[in-house]
Write a structure and sequence with these properties.
Elements (H helix, E strand, L loop, with lengths): L4 E3 L2 E3 L9 H48 L8 E3 L5 E3 L12 E6 L9 E5 L3 H5 L4 E3 L10 E6 L20 E6 L2 E13 L21 E9 L6 E14 L6 H4 L11
Parallel strand pairs: 6-7, 8-11
Antiparallel strand pairs: 1-2, 3-4, 5-6, 5-9, 7-8, 9-10, 10-12, 11-12
Length: about 260
C-alpha cells in the first residue's frame, strides 16, 4: 500500500513530523534572551525605580524619626540677620567621609514623603547607586558660606533628582541634620556641559568671587537617560531652625501651586 491512506474515498497524506533544527532552537533562545533583556530594562527604568524610591523615602523617614527621639541639642546663639532681626547662628556639620551619612533632604515640591539621605562623596559604586544623594569633594557644608554642592541620579537607582526641572522659584530645599534644619530657596535652573565644573565653585560660575552668601547646588545628568549634559538647580540660604523649636514652616506648610504657563 502507498504512503497515503484511503478514508471515505479520499486520499490523505501523512504530514511529516516537524524536527527541531539548530536554527529554530537558536531563534527561540534569542527570543527568550530578548524578552529577558526587556524585562531587565523595565525593572531598571520603571519598576525598580518605584520600589527603590519608596525604600529610600522610608529610610529617610526612619532617620528623621530617630533624630526626633533624641534629646534636642542646646539652642545656638542668636545673631543679627541681614534685615536686623535676631536669627540663630547655623550649626555647621563636619564634612563626612565617602558614603557616610551627613543629613536628609526634604523638597516639598516633590511630595510630602520626599525624604532622601545625603552622603559623603559622589562615587557611583559606593554612594550614588547604593545610597542616594552625594556631596562633592571640597563642597561647603549646610549653612556654611560658599556652595553646598551635591549630585544625584535623575533616572534609575531611586532617581532622587528626577524632578529637578519641576522646581518653582522660591521652592524650599530643606536639609535636616541632628542639630536642626537648614532651609534654602530655589532660584534658577540651567543646563551645562559635563566638564563645566565651575558650577561647584563657592560662587557658582564666578571664579575667585567672595560674596559672603550661602548657596546650594543640585546636579544630575540630562536629558533623561542620557549623559550629554548636566541639569543644575541653584538655591540660596534662608535660615536655620534648631531642632528644639521643631520643623520649619517650609515643611509644615504646603508648597505654593505651580505657576501658570505664560501665554
Amino acid at each position: 500500500m502507498s504512503a497515503s491512506v484511503v478514508a471515505g474515498g479520499r486520499r490523505h497524506r501523512r504530514r511529516p513530523r516537524s524536527r527541531a533544527t539548530v536554527t529554530s532552537v537558536l531563534g527561540e533562545l534569542l527570543l527568550t534572551a530578548g524578552v529577558l533583556v526587556l524585562l531587565f530594562v523595565a525593572w531598571q527604568m520603571w519598576i525598580g525605580d518605584i520600589i527603590i524610591n519608596a525604600q529610600k523615602n522610608d529610610e529617610g523617614a526612619q532617620i528623621s524619626q530617630q533624630l526626633a527621639q533624641r534629646p534636642a541639642p542646646e539652642l545656638p546663639p542668636l545673631i543679627e540677620g541681614d534685615d536686623g532681626t535676631q536669627v540663630y547662628e547655623p550649626v555647621i556639620p563636619a564634612a563626612p567621609a565617602e558614603s557616610v551619612w551627613l543629613a536628609n533632604m526634604h523638597i516639598p515640591r516633590f511630595g510630602a514623603d520626599y525624604n532622601k539621605g545625603i552622603y559623603g562623596g559622589t562615587s557611583r559604586a559606593r554612594t550614588l547607586d547604593k545610597l542616594g544623594i552625594g556631596v562633592y569633594k571640597d563642597s561647603k557644608m549646610p549653612g556654611e558660606v560658599g556652595n553646598f554642592a551635591m549630585a544625584g541620579h535623575r533616572t534609575t537607582w531611586g532617581k532622587p533628582f528626577n524632578q529637578l526641572d519641576k522646581l518653582q522659584i522660591n521652592d524650599a530645599i530643606v536639609v535636616e541634620t541632628p542639630d536642626g534644619w537648614f532651609t534654602y530657596r530655589f532660584r534658577t535652573l540651567e543646563y551645562v556641559k559635563p566638564n563645566q565644573t565651575d558650577v561647584l565653585l563657592d560662587v557658582p560660575q564666578v571664579p575667585g568671587a567672595e560674596t559672603g552668601e550661602r548657596y546650594i547646588t543640585l546636579t544630575a545628568c540630562s536629558p533623561l537617560y542620557s549623559l550629554a549634559e548636566r541639569i543644575v538647580a541653584y538655591g540660596v540660604y534662608e535660615s536655620f531652625q534648631p531642632r528644639a523649636e521643631g520643623p520649619p514652616a517650609a515643611l509644615t506648610d504646603p508648597p505654593p501651586p505651580p505657576a501658570a504657563p505664560s501665554v
